[in-house]
Amino acid sequence: MTVPTDSATCAIQVHNIHKSFGDLPVLKGISFQAQQGDVLSIIGASGSGKSTLLRCINHLVVPDQGEIHIGQDVLRSHAKRDGTMVSSDPKRLEKVRARLGMVFQNFNLWSHRTVLQNVIEGPIQVKKIAKAQASEYALHLLDKVGLAHKATAYPSELSGGQQQRVAIARALAMDPEVMLFDEPTSALDPEMVGEVLRVIRQLAEEGRTMILVTHEMQFAREVSNHAIFMHNGLCEEAGTPAALFDHPQSTRLQQFLQPLA
Amino acid sequence: MTVPTDSATCAIQVHNIHKSFGDLPVLKGISFQAQQGDVLSIIGASGSGKSTLLRCINHLVVPDQGEIHIGQDVLRSHAKRDGTMVSSDPKRLEKVRARLGMVFQNFNLWSHRTVLQNVIEGPIQVKKIAKAQASEYALHLLDKVGLAHKATAYPSELSGGQQQRVAIARALAMDPEVMLFDEPTSALDPEMVGEVLRVIRQLAEEGRTMILVTHEMQFAREVSNHAIFMHNGLCEEAGTPAALFDHPQSTRLQQFLQPLA
Amino acid sequence: MMSWDEFSYTIGVLWKGFGLTLYIGLWGIALSLLLGVGLALMRLSNQRVLRAVAFSYSTAFRGTPLLVQLFLLYYGVGMISWVKQVPFLWWLFSDGTRTAILAIALNSGAYVGEVFRGGFQAVPKGQIEAAQAIGMSAWQCFKRVRLPLAIRQALPAYSNEIVIAIKGTSLASTIAVLELTGYARRIMSQNYAIVETFVIAGLLYLAINFSLLAVIHLIERQLHLKASS
Amino acid sequence: MLETLLRILNDGWGWMFLRGAAMTLFISVLGMALGVLIGVTGASIKLNGPRWLSGLVSVYTTITRSIPELLIIYLLFFGSIHSVSQLGDFLQLEELINRWFPAAVGILAIGLVAGSYSVEVFRGALQAIPTGQIEAAKAIGMSRWQRLWRVVIPQMTWFALPGCNNVWQTALKDTALIALVGLVEIMRAAQLGAAAMREPLAMYLIAGFLFFIIGIGSQALFVIAEKYAGRGMRAVA
Amino acid sequence: ATSYKIGTEGGYPPWSMVDAAGNVTGFDADVGAALCKKLDADCQFVVQAFDSLIPSLSANRFDLIISGMSYTPERAKRINFSLPYAVEDAIFILKADTPAIKADSAESIYTDLAGKTIGVQGGTTHGAFLAKVAPKVNIKDYETLDQMQIDLDSGRLDGTFADLTSQSRFLKQMNTTDYALTETVIKGSSDPETLGYGIAVGIHKDNADLKARVDAALCELIEDGTIKSASEKWFDIDIANYDACK
Ligand SMILES: Nc1ncnc2c1ncn2[C@@H]1O[C@H](COP(=O)(O)OP(=O)(O)OP(=O)(O)O)[C@@H](O)[C@H]1O
Ligand SMILES: Nc1ncnc2c1ncn2[C@@H]1O[C@H](COP(=O)(O)OP(=O)(O)OP(=O)(O)O)[C@@H](O)[C@H]1O
Ligand SMILES: [Mg+2]
Ligand SMILES: [Mg+2]
């Protein structure tokens, strides 16, 4: 995982990311990389910076230091005169973001658009796909997550799990090379979790790369081929899920997994 | 569970609750009751109406039909002339709500108040407890969920799991007779889940009643002494968690639990 | 009270000013909307200079009466000799109607800017992040997410600025533009039926504003989204 | 120019302007307070009240906002002047009423106008509060009043402040219209001064300056208020 | 002695001004003071915006209006007027090279002005008069004389039409040879229906008794030269109406 590999197949590379909120250092130099078709799980205690890391990857949170490589593109940041960090190449950033799908921890569905409109918005506006075609694909995705019948509902009329599934469909609709999932199954029942598992596996087979923050170790174990344990703003331990979960090395990880034993 | 019992110890009784959103019937006549010290888990597919049911109990969603008994108090509803349902006795409702704690699925922390202020708001305003005393208890609770160091942060500065833990502390601070938890561990890591489990057990020992919506069967099994499986707006199956999870009777429940097998 | 003849005569005269009031008002409103949205974005931009410029503008233009601004533009700028040399400027300032439109646009724009700033501020950050995350450009994000959500919050308060702009056109009569109020004054000086004439003029303003508020109401209904989550 | 200004201020007009500024502030502050009260009440009625009442509020806001402010003052003043002076005769309070009637009309007029604008400002602000925030307050058993004071008003304030600022600035200017009822506020002081001293330009400059000072002062207060009300709300995600 | 409250505008020099201490001065003040002396009454001025003088009088907020107010039939429907104790002639200011400057009859001025833009003060009788006698003139109404005069200065107007007194004062201030007063003065008496019957004291409709006493007192003031001296003090000319009591 952190072993350098042929960069041709390297889908994403995160290099020495630092981020503080005010005085609070959250990320203190995180690096990792993932190949095409990799599914990488990020685990760690609540508040350990997993969401922040994910949001640094597409520069929704601009890192204080460090680089992100997505395929051939590099995202860098620099400080403005007043000290706030900004993305160095906003035009490129937009292009890169269109290739990165993201499912937010709190979904962030657009409240002024129906479910279907939420899903086709990106394909139509950013990828300039014809509306009919985008809608067809969107309905297919909504059907997959069991929500075709809610296509005309507004987000506020959905249950928590339904919102989460729309968020997943919305990210998939962009047909991204790399998917960033922030706890994508937190509001889902076991059946739906199984469905999401299947979708992720299928995407991986298609050669897409996935980075996944999750609290469900069982899910992480089944879906991913690599895992990272975050602690104190650093990558405390990394390896295959089996290695991590069955033979944790650091005492912190042992303690973290304790309740499951 | 649905067996009638001595009403003296019956902490909560839900009687034939119906609720539709527009044309969509969500609850079609749900009844159950729980004794003091009971922990009742509600499981069911995403969108099956679990949150709606929980919100009906404290009349955040006013049922179209049915009654809620909390101790000696009864909550009823009636239709206004324009057809919208309203709670029949708003004054009593306020009193009852003060005895019902609730953790929302999407937390609903007050964004204009700090973490500590969120927790002491209810005790001070509703229960008229002195500020010093309320703060002391609040800090104790925050410490219990590992957030004493975030007491002065605003909700927007918290991670998802941190927000959820504040929401739990806020509900506990009211010292309620009955607790309504809507997926209280969805954003929590295994360690924190274990902590919440401990808290719930302790509350049950104190004689408090808990109603718990969850997608984590393992958690439901460990924490609760009764479980309900909701399907199609009805209570499809009820019993002890062991009976429900190990020997599901209905085919729908069998199918629901399938992915875990 | 007025006789019927006096009444219909009054209406007839006032009607002559009605069109001009509408003309000044609608142009003023259209221009102030553009200016206002621009100012709101400047105030929220992360460019300090833009913020300061917009803040000073809004303080200055809201801090002084429209009448003063109108006088400064009409009598003040109109007196500067080189303004008469520049054809476009003299085209603008030689004519009371055009100067009045300009004054209303500049003044109302400052207010509209504040209203929309409030609207943009109320857009939840997550909604914008979701747009950024799929690679929308700043303009697309503005058009598709920020503006629709901001309008929804700002529309009620914006309707205030519309009616104020329409009423503001009455000041054009002070630079001798004969709109509704101008004619009303003229009639009052003839018949001294001050209250009656004034009420009739008021009703004509009411008619314009009522129609504009109805349009706003329709837009609001159209945009009315199901309760936000 | 400076000489002229000094002469004007020395001649007692300085005091006149100060009294005018005090009158402007007196009428506009009380009028605005009344307006905010009307605004919050009206907005809640429009959003949650019974249909007939919210219809009444709509009629009020539409009419009051649509007709010129001067007409409102006119109608209020001359519409009530007869009955009020009769009432004064009857109660033998002529002096008192003669003295305070104009100010009362001024405050009422400014309040009604500011109120009609405020209703819309607060309506937009109320709609912007996420429903979950209020549900959380209901769920712990807060009463209607507690919800209003503890959740609705603090959150609404943040959304409403820019619009309120506009209403205030407008109300401040509108006080110039109360000269009609015989009150000497800043603009009327300038007009009288211009006539007496034959220095219109200087007089109106002083008036503009006073307005601007009040405008900037209140602007500063609004900036502080927004900072305060925005705690935690600024980055609501 | 009885006491009267007198309504006056206060912001209209040189007719009616207030100083910083609140004392009313000007032609109106002098007439008012003299009138009260004749009536053997204590008088107190109430300063109020011109537009609200008539309604306030109707509502008994004061007893008399002395505020350079012209007696017109329309106003007379609402309040009583005393005898017109003063009359004012009107005059045009025009470009000095306009033939109308030298015209020897009012009519030839009007024909000459066709198509020209003339400023008048809104709310006065001059606008209505001009619209009637010279319909082809383009009339612009101004809120105050000052504004009208500034606009003439800035070249937006071909001329102005107003009181003889204010026009001559203004021309003096302008200090220019580009503009001049017409040689022909428009007599106030030429069309009293429109131009007004002259300046009069306003009295409440129901108070016929007071009107009689004010009329009598004004006649005495015209006769004994009080009006004349006040007029010359403030306007440099005599505008007393010697026909009023005949
Ligand atoms: N305000 C509303 N308007 C219309 N439909 C609604 C509304 N709220 C909920 N629903 C619908 O009611 C059904 C039940 O919703 P509820 O939130 O109770 O589900 P849930 O069991 O809690 O699901 P989850 O596990 O996903 O949270 C869903 O199909 C949802 O779409
Ligand atoms: N805007 C912010 N301002 C200040 N502190 C912040 C902000 N956002 C996050 N933090 C802090 O940064 C830390 C990491 O937050 P982050 O959301 O990345 O955690 P997480 O690992 O995703 O946790 P969870 O599993 O609970 O979602 C937390 O302690 C949080 O309080
Ligand atoms: Mg997170
Ligand atoms: Mg739910």
Question: What does this 3D model show about the protein?
Answer:
Chains A, B: It is a peripheral membrane protein. The complex is a heteropentamer, with two copies of chain A (261 residues), one copy of chain C (229 residues), one copy of chain D (237 residues) and one copy of chain E (246 residues). Chain A has 261 residues and is α/β, with parallel strands linked by helices. Chain A is 35% helix and 27% strand. In chain A, α3 (115-125) runs parallel beside α5 and α4 packs across α5. In chain A, 51% of the residues are buried. The model of chain A is unreliable at 1-5 (pLDDT under 50). Chain D has a single domain (2-229), classed as MetI-like fold (Orthogonal Bundle). Chain D has helices at residues 2-48, 51-66, 69-91, 94-128, 131-139, 144-174, 186-197, 200-229. In chain D, 54% of the residues are buried. Chain E has a five-stranded mixed sheet. A five-stranded mixed sheet of chain E has the order 10-9-11-8-12. A three-stranded antiparallel sheet of chain E has the order 2-3-4, covered by helices on one side. In chain E, α1 (27-39) packs across α9 (208-223) and α1 packs antiparallel against α10 (226-235). The two termini of chain E are 30 Å apart. The interface between C and D is large, with 48 and 48 residues. The complex binds adenosine-5'-triphosphate (ATP) (2 copies) and magnesium ion (2 copies). One magnesium ion binds next to α1 of chain A.
User: What level of helicity do the residues of chain D show?
Assistant: over 70%
- Describe the largest sheet of chain E: 5 strands, mixed
Strand order of the largest sheet of chain E: 5-1-6-13-7
What name does CATH use for the topology of chain D?
MetI-like fold
SSE ordering of chain E: EEEEHEHEHEEHEHEHEHEHEHH
Number of domains of chain D: 1
Structural class of chain E: alpha/beta
CATH class of chain D: Mainly Alpha
Subcellular location (chain C): Cell inner membrane; Cell membrane
Main location (chain C): membrane
Keywords (chain C): Cell inner membrane, Cell membrane, Membrane, Transmembrane, Transmembrane helix, Transport
Membrane topology (chain C): Multi-pass membrane protein
Gist of the model:
Chain C: This is ABC transporter permease. The complex is a heteropentamer, with two copies of chain A (261 residues), one copy of chain C (229 residues), one copy of chain D (237 residues) and one copy of chain E (246 residues). Chain A is of the alpha/beta class and 261 residues long.
